[in-house]
Fold this sequence. Notes:
Chain B is of the alpha+beta class. Helix content of chain B is 30%, strand content 16%. Chain B has helices at residues 25-32, 88-96, 105-118, 124-130, 142-152, and strands at residues 4-10, 13-19, 51-54, 57-60, 73-75. In chain B, strands 2-1-5-3-4 form a five-stranded mixed β-sheet, with helices on both faces. Chain C is of the alpha+beta class.
Amino acid sequence: MISDFTYLKPGSAKEALKMLAEHQDDGKIICGGQSLLIIMRQGLVTPEYVIDIKKLKDLNYMTFDPKDGLKMGATTTHRTIEKSAMVKEKYPVLVEMEEKLASIQVRNWGTIGGNLAHADAAGDPAPVLMSMGGSVKVASASGERVISLDDFYTDLFETAMNHDEMIVEVIVPPRPAKSATKYQKFNLLDSDQGIVAVAATITLNGGGVCKDARIVLGNAASTTIRAKEAEKVLIGAKLDDAVFQKAGEAAAAECQPVADIHASEEYRRHLISILTKRMAKAAWEQAKISG
Amino acid sequence: MEKQLLRLNVNDQNYEIYINPKTLLVEAIRDHIELTGTKRGCDTVSCGACTVVVDDMAVKACSVLAVQAEGTKILTSEGLEVNGKLAPIQKAFLDEGAFQCGFCTSGMLMSSVAFLNETKKPTEKEIRDGIEGNICRCTGYNSIVRAIDSVAKGKYTEDKV
Amino acid sequence: MNKYTVINPHEPFKVINTHIHNVDGWAKVTGRAAYTFDIKLPGMLYGKILRSPHPHANIRGIDASKALALDGVKAVVTGKDTLGIKQGIWRRYKDLCDEQILPVDKVRYIGEPVAAVAATTEEIAEKALDLIEVDYEVLPAVFEPLDAIKKGAPEIHEGFERNINVTRHIEWGEVEEGFEEAEYIREDWFRCGGQAHMCMETRCAVSSYTPDKKLTIYHSNQSPYYMQGLMAGVLDMREGDIRVVAPYVGGGFGGKFELDGAIFCTAILSMKCYKPVKIVYTREEDFIASKRRTPMFYYTRTGVKKDGTFCAREAKVFTNGGAYTGMGATALYLTGFFHSFPYRWKGYRYDGYRVYTNTLPSTSMRGFGAPQAMWCSEQQIEWIAADLGLDPIEMRRKNSHQEGTILPGQATIASCGIDQCYDEITKWIKGKGKLPANRSIGISACGFMSGGIFNWFDSPYSFSSAVVTINQDGTVELHIGAQEIGQGSNTTMAIICAETLGVKVEDIKVHSGDTDHCPPDLGAWGSRQTLMTGNATKMASENAKKQLLEFAYAQSGLNIVYDLDIKDRWVHAIARPERGEDFVKLVRKALRGKDGQKIVGRGYYTPHRKGMISPAYSYMLQGVEVEVDEETGKITLMDSMTAHDCGQPINHLGLIGQLEGAFSMAAGYGYLEYMPYEDGKLMNPNLVDYKMIRAPEMPPANIAEIDTYEPEGPYGAKEAGEGLTNPTAAAIGNALFHRFGVQMKECPVRPEMVVNALKEKKEKEAAEKK
């Protein structure tokens, strides 16, 4: 049973931040609520004030320009991203990821800001965005700051945000030349979160050598994590199956998965190794043909 | 907790109800407005039995606070028929036997309606993905897929209400 | 997207097997169908159940005073407020009546009810649960049957040595001689998991006890008559003073024909406060405290000749019975019986042991022990064929039941279409040509019963009864005790009634699901209603028709060598169909001749001289095309084919739905649906972590229906829709065997198990090379 709360409905982001400043210890932002209401029902979160930003128009936007890349207001729904022709053209992996995120109903109401703030290590957007070098703009009543997703997740369901801060924007840099990102999760049902997930971005130089690689693992530790050892294997290498295999092994070695009923720790490492190998290769193949 | 006034528009009808703000949309629809076609089958936003259409989008009514639905237009299974005339998707469900126990059916219909509105000429795979948020323990889904497909293919065009 | 074909169609009917909409359909597609879940009575209170956090503990005391002091709480009940009667559905056998629902002094599994609260809102009731103080003396617990039978294991029920709850021995023919004749003998151990019924409507009930000492119960169940009888027993009331209504029921699958906490606690609470009380299980409660498919350990030893002739088989089974008996005793019997199916043996022997553990009680679930039996049998048979270099389909075919096969002392097979099932499956496989490298096909055969000949409930009534009443306007009231739970029984009975009377389905109003107004019937379990209630319905319809035709004869003055009939509401001489009279006109006249009394026909059915198990058996083969990702072990179902003999189909729309639905549940049992326990605690009691097939996972379901004629069934009909829960898991296992040569002995087969099996195989092969 959800415990009682006072419902606050700000008319603007500014007003929301004011409310958050006032109730920072016992207030909670709700947006799509697709995850929040579940944990509230389980009694894991019991805010006294719920601040609803779902309908805030000033946080609902998507823009792209070649210099700054993609900017999405926090209340942009998953479905909006999935259906955006612009996103499909510039960041096709985001559409592929969204199409596999839970069910249509959840994507219709759930938002990108809410998803990232929930900080579930098995969430889908974080690995993809992190792999593309994404960041979030967080704001409080006293100002704004941009946090790279690399630094955003601090522990299980914990972020670098202070209690008076909320995500207002998600930023994805423009895709470099000869670069591509691929994402895959391993799950039993199409609509499930990943038992593990891997996002890989490969950027090539003119000679076809790997100039940069960002490998991000989902549900392979208490937070979404970069697989830096795997990246080291890839960066500077002339890529081939043996390198991808090695990168997979490195990722499997450096991740810290926990066992649960769906998979043992050993099997999770095995899956990380397979998916890293596959995604790095898929990204490489895409990067080769991309402009 | 003090109750607050909430105005909801469900099936083109305006309702005024007094609710605790923590009331979920599914509770408002079932317990306050007393339209019980919409069901609940879980507590984890998994089963889709509570699916309703909010502003033309399928939404799980257990994952939304009722207060968040203020100002929207909500459609439930009770709102599909017009003056006793069944909507195409309802006829198709009958023709294909796309339900058994019927407990998931309202939610399944609402997912289907929203899906058909936004997807013209869907492939079989798209139809399956379109209802993946809804669990049916009885049918094995194929009859539901056939029903959606037959509506998409225009079998009931003349029956549009 | 799917193909449905009919082999040997036999369709001389006006209504049967034509395109008939489900008679409850309009209510279900318009949101009007009201389930127990939807019922709200004036003044109704809401109940919640406090459940044991311990797998095994004595209840030393319960203090509910703080809960009772909470504003809005109207009653709290514990075992001490009940008569403490131990009940069970095997009520002929007192020692198998072992469950109090609200135990008086001891809990035996995590989730067992300990107390129940009624309050003005559900929220207050839930808050009150936290205020009840229970003093437990925690006892050592045991969770696995092979541990529970050990000497010195904790005693779960007094007087059951080594926790053995029930034993079953089945034996026929010459087992030893059979094994002596065998030229090849194979033995294997298997492990079969549990499975949740996962009805979309969780267990729920509304009970209303009134000052006239009558109790009305709305309850989501599969047999209102059983509920009435069981509740009368635990409350020491007369059956007739209890009315059980099962309105639209949101699924059953074998999990809703025993007493549950919802029906029992609402009744006790209502008797305490004379107000209606409603309890709806949460999904978590439904997982941890309803019941489940019985997990089993299977040992099976099979002897065959080198040419593939089956000689003898013996099996030994230990089932995880959980804390109480329930329907588990029947599952123990049926798994042993169906482990012999669908084959002829010179001798067959089975010994089953149902073992109490401190886990959720296990019980009947769609297939009733047979999915476990087939998981083991059908894989072992595939391996034997491979061991001997024989074609697995042809080896099965030559040993299969035929019309007239006798299972000594158990059954005689009167109709059997399995031979043509082999033809259809073979055609499907051949039609596929060469498969991609990552795919393979597995098949599996089975047979199933059409209702049980068991009366452990000790009912003095016919197994099924029906009453047909014809109104003056030609509309027909059909009263049956059969329970509609989504399987389509109301439609099936309406079709049989309309066909027999010669009217249309829309003329029939079906009344079911109410013990006050419907004749007793054992209800929806063991695939019994089509055959048993179908026979009763046919008999009642024939009886009513005969009364009408007697009158028609009298007024027509026909020579008695001519026969009259009714088809499409037209009463006529068969020889001169154009001459006749409108059905309604005849009914009106006939009523006058009966002094205004409505025409009432009665019918009933109880099987006699049909062996030990069932009056008739269906047969089927399941083929499944499986894709496996060799590196991750992920299984994807690509296509499926069912060849199926259910006698004469009554309603093909319902039949297809039943087969597709059974396939999805059976496939789930094979590779997805998994119930892991840790120290007696279910680890995935929610729909995030309990995985079931959803639309994207469901493959096309091609069906070939072999029409046979079952002499014991109404119009030749027999079972459909439960039997097909049995073969699929083994078919998936067999597909893995053909692809990789691995033998999966535990179900469900999860991807990690595939990866481990492949790794083991590689290591073994490497070791052998050395």
